[in-house]
UniProtKB/TrEMBL annotation:
Pfam family, one: TP_methylase
Keywords (A to Z) from UniProt: Cobalamin biosynthesis, Methyltransferase, S-adenosyl-L-methionine, Transferase
Domain of life: Bacteria
UniProt record, GO biological process: cobalamin biosynthetic process; methylation
Keyword Cell inner membrane set for record: no
Name under which the protein is recorded: Cobalt-precorrin 3 C17-methyltransferase
InterPro entries in UniProt: 4pyrrol_Mease, 4pyrrol_Methylase_sf, 4pyrrole_Mease_sub1, 4pyrrole_Mease_sub2, Cbl_synth_CobJ/CibH_dom, Precorrin_MeTrfase
Domain Tetrapyrrole methylase stretches: 4-214
Pathway where this protein functions: Cofactor biosynthesis; adenosylcobalamin biosynthesis
Length: 246
């Protein structure tokens, strides 16, 4: 099968933090499809390529356009921030190709990338070293009730929690409610790492606590890492003990 659609996770947004495989695939592709913000992050790799940019909420259209390019024989990739699977476009691509009955005509090649939980954790110290979970506060695809249920179970189970999509203009108060649910099972002195624009221009890193969290400093480009009951702050870094006896 010659027709292949690439789903590429570009990592946190800086070229040096992209996997070599992702970099080489982008270089080799003729067509790049993606959300405008993600295209901007790899703009220097877009020379002499057809670039299709679409805004937030146009994921299905992006996928359809990419499929059309592949069917016309062009080597095409859909770019995803972080990883191409986690909150990315890979699942949608498989679903759409199945629904269009194109599985015998288009092969999907998923290229993973460094997701925000891991890139942000590396900037904060070592908050994620064992079991953890990711929770997106975006209720665009998942109901708010289900998000809160998942969040409460994760907090009760004492996971370190990486919070994606914590805030937007349409969801100004979701994070406050989410932290109230977490605080049922965590001390208000629990460390919280706040990273905006990880490994990109205007990067900002803050380590604080549930009690001292500044909600006004958080936006859609921010990821939060909420520690578990063992996480502590030392020398301006978040550390979750792995369990070794020292």
């Amino acid at each position: 099968m010659n027709n292949k659609l690439f789903l590429i996770g570009i990592g946190p947004g800086s070229i040096e933090n992209m996997t070599i495989r992702a970099y080489k695939c982008i270089e080799a592709c003729e067509v790049l499809v993606g959300y405008s913000v993600y295209i901007d992050q790899v703009r220097e790799l877009c020379n002499n390529k057809k670039v299709i940019e679409r805004g937030m909420g146009q994921e299905i259209e992006r996928c359809r356009l990419a499929i059309d390019e592949v069917l016309h024989g062009r080597k095409t990739a859909i770019l995803c921030s972080g990883d191409s699977l986690l909150y990315g476009m890979a699942g949608l691509a498989f679903e759409l190709i199945n629904s269009l009955e194109l599985t015998d005509k288009i092969e999907i090649d998923v290229i993973p990338g460094i997701t925000s939980a891991i890139s942000c954790s590396s900037l904060l110290g070592a908050p994620i070293v064992e079991d953890f979970c990711t929770i997106s506060l975006s209720d665009y695809m998942v109901s708010w009730d289900k998000i809160l249920k998942r969040l409460e179970k994760a907090a009760e189970a004492d996971f370190v929690i990486a919070i994606y999509n914590p805030k937007s203009k349409a969801r100004p108060d979701h994070l406050k409610v989410a932290m109230e649910y977490i605080e049922k099972y965590r001390s208000n002195s629990t460390p919280v790492g706040v990273v905006r624009n990880a490994y990109r221009d205007n990067e900002h890193i803050t380590i604080t606590t549930i009690k001292e969290l500044d909600y006004d400093a958080i936006d859609m480009f921010t990821t939060l890492i909420v520690g578990n009951s063992n996480t502590y702050i030392y020398n301006e870094k978040m550390i979750t003990p792995r369990g070794y006896k020292l």
